[in-house]
Amino acid sequence: MKRQLIVLMGLDGSGKTTQANLLASDLGARGIKAEVVWMRGESYLTRPLLKVAKTILRAPKAAKRGQTDEPEAYERYVSGKRSVFKNRAARGLWRSLVIADFYITLRIAFSKIPSSTRVVLLDRYLYDSLIDIVSGYGGGEEVLKQLLASKAARIFPRPDMVVLLDLEPAEAMRRKDDIPSLGYLEERYDLYHVVAREVGAVTVDASRPLENVRAAIAEAVKQVLPDSGSDQKGDSR
Fold it and tell me: What is the dihedral of CA 162, 168, 169, 172, to 10 degrees?
């Protein structure tokens, strides 16, 4: 039996990790073994380069907002990144590194999942990384669409379902105190909706109470996992 892949994506603060764990619990209660995989923890190729770039571009410290609130510094950092990425070769190299990095991370994560697992719940996916790429050099909607349709993107497993946890940037900012600035969220918000349209994601209003969001996700997932006894199709290449 092939594994089902369900992706939860959305802004920082939208509740992806919380809802992924709740969904795993709900599926377990239905007799469906699920594993949550957080796809932001490792970086084998780009992290060393990012450290150097952040030092050169004087990125704000990654501290809680109550300790360090530097919106001007963040905007200066973003402007510096985009200046670098005006160079076509730099954009292409960085894009290739990010995609390759995510592919390596995904394969390593999949290799650690028990064979008895029927559903893999991915907390973030390639889509989040592509949004980061576009935000990094300001490519906008058309560039994001091109990346989604690229040969590189097609080597990744196609999820059986994608759930966008939709939350306004201001509310996401209120929920988390480690987001660098409101601008960081605003420049990503519309891009998440572009991805949702392109991949046919189910959009769930993440501003509602936690249990309401949980119920909405569980109901949507029943479309691909109607019961615990039937064979399901999936792709965990």
Answer: -80
Residue showing tokens 């949702």:
196
pLDDT at residue 181, rounded to an integer: 80
Question: What's the rounded Cα separation, in Å, for the pair 108 and 100?
Answer: 12
Give the tokens for residue 212.
Answer: 């309401």
Encoded tokens for 174: 């209120």
| 237: in domain | no
Structural domain span for residue 54: 4-221
Q: Is residue 205 part of a domain?
A: yes
Task: Give the count of domains, the chain.
Answer: 1
146 in any annotated domain: yes
Q: Do residues 23 and 217 make contact, with C-beta atoms less than 8 angstroms apart?
A: yes
Q: What is the pLDDT of residue 207?
A: 97
Q: The pTM is what?
A: 0.81
The residue-averaged pLDDT of 36-44 equals 78
User: Would residue 228 count as lying in a domain?
Assistant: no
CATH number, domain of 36, equals 3.40.50.300
Residue with more model confidence, 65 or 7:
7
Indicate whether 86 pLDDT > 90.
Answer: no
